[in-house]
Design brief:
The chain is an all-alpha fold. The chain is built from 16 helices and 4 strands. The longest helix is centred in the C-terminal third of the chain and has 38 residues.
């Protein structure tokens, strides 16, 4: 492992014994990592086992930790350190230690994705492709499970909601949003007629999100689409293409209403939608419901600087925090809670300037930004500190941030060298 600030695109030059470039093998391994991210129905998941091996191999082969994504590393280290300090406070030491160990592993995967993109930003296409194919496949499984299209299909549902290859529909739904936005971006920025083949996978993703009956997933999708559509409008310089975007927006809204009407024509779907569409559920507003736990939980935080210990919140309340910022303080102490909030704010602020730059990966960056911001808002009502794809989002975001910083530093150095050359010539 080494710390460096080299240029993007610097990759291993060695070749495998069979003659295939190591770069090609590495890219294939990266695609598989993105694909496996959708299969976490059991723990340890294939994704976790594979990523543990992949991170070790890549670091051993020279993948570098760059100062450009140093804030990600520092904040995650402080976050995990806060968790380690709270472990002795837990009733079950072994269970608590394992909980923080998993958090540490997920933090490593986040740093891995940042390093991968900072090393070669063109790899975003590999990650995008693997993630999208995985999401479409997982969504199709969830849809098939919901409608019982094959024997044993109910395994892929939970509480009459599609969960696909995830443990919880509330994770399954949000996982599908990023690839859905990436497909929408393609339709917004390119000819729809030449990309009609994308409508089928997009429909599968949207239906999967809907059948998860996750209010959080619906909110993430809605917020994400609004952000990418707004960015497409404000960054488009041609009035003709801007008019096209407006027409596509109207067509998209009509198409969504048509799909929604078709889905709600099924009685069981309509009944579940009516139940889940309520803004406040019984478990939100009860005496020790979600909202009451927020106020009581923050009172406990003020009395426990080191937190309550991993999984310690359940010793005081019947359910978990369902608020990742509160959980940051109760599980990771004041140090971890502060570090997580700092990471969230730092990431969002650092990404904003990237949204308006014309780069091959701008649409990808905009989609990651939109989904990440929506997830950070969602984190106020649900625990996301164990979501594998949440750590991936942080890594992808800082990979893009690092790429921009490296590019700007190279530009400055080129200008300095040019001025030195002119001075020498004079």
């Amino acid at each position: 492992m080494s710390v460096a600030g080299g240029h993007p695109g610097d990759v291993l030059r060695a070749h495998a014994p069979i003659g295939l470039p190591v770069k090609s093998l590495g890219n294939g391994a990266l695609w598989l990592a993105a694909f496996l991210s959708g299969f976490v129905i059991e723990e340890p998941a294939p994704y976790e086992l594979y990523m543990a091996l992949l991170c070790v191999v890549w670091l051993a082969c020279g993948l570098r930790l760059r100062r450009e994504f140093g804030p990600l590393i520092i904040c995650l280290m402080l976050f995990v350190t806060g968790g380690l300090a709270s472990v002795p406070l837990a009733n079950e030491f072994g269970e608590a230690a394992m909980y923080i160990a998993v958090t540490g592993f997920l933090a490593i995967t986040s740093i891995f994705y940042a390093a991968i993109l900072a090393d070669d930003p063109g790899r975003f296409r590999i990650i995008q492709n693997g993630y999208t194919i995985s999401a479409v496949f997982v969504s199709a499984i969830g849809i098939a499970g919901y409608f019982h299209l094959f024997p044993g299909a109910e395994y892929f549902t939970l509480y009459d909601r599609a969960r696909g290859t995830f443990q919880d529909p509330n994770v399954f739904g949000p996982f599908l949003v990023l690839p859905a936005l990436l497909l929408i971006q393609t339709l917004l920025r390119n000819s729809v007629l030449k990309n009609l083949h994308l409508l089928l996978p997009l429909t599968v993703l949207l239906l999967g999100i809907f059948l998860s009956f996750s209010r959080g997933a619906w909110g993430v999708l809605f917020a994400g689409v609004l952000v990418v559509y707004f960015l497409a409008l404000v960054t488009e310089q041609s009035n003709r293409r801007r008019t096209r975007l407006v027409m596509l927006g109207i067509a998209g809204v009509l198409a969504v209403f048509a799909l929604l009407a078709a889905a709600l024509s099924i009685d069981t779907v309509a009944a579940m939608f009516e139940q889940r569409a309520r803004l406040v559920q019984d478990y939100d507003s009860s005496r020790l419901g979600r909202f009451a736990r927020y106020a009581l939980g923050f009172q406990l935080v003020m009395e426990h600087p080191l937190g309550l210990g991993p999984l310690g919140f359940r010793n005081y309340f019947p359910e978990d925090t369902h608020n990742v910022y509160l959980k940051g303080f109760t599980t990771y102490g004041w140090l971890g809670g502060t570090a997580y909030i700092a990471l969230a704010l730092w990431t969002v602020c650092a990404m904003v300037p990237l949204l308006f730059k014309s780069r091959p990966w701008t649409a990808f960056t905009q989609s990651v930004f939109a989904v990440l911001v929506a997830h950070l808002i969602l984190s106020a009502i649900i625990d996301t500190d164990r979501w594998r794809h949440m750590y991936m989002l942080y890594g992808l975001a800082w990979g893009m941030i690092a790429t921009d910083r490296i590019e700007r530093r190279r530009f400055r150095l080129s200008g300095i060298n040019y001025q030195k050359g002119r001075a020498s010539a004079d």
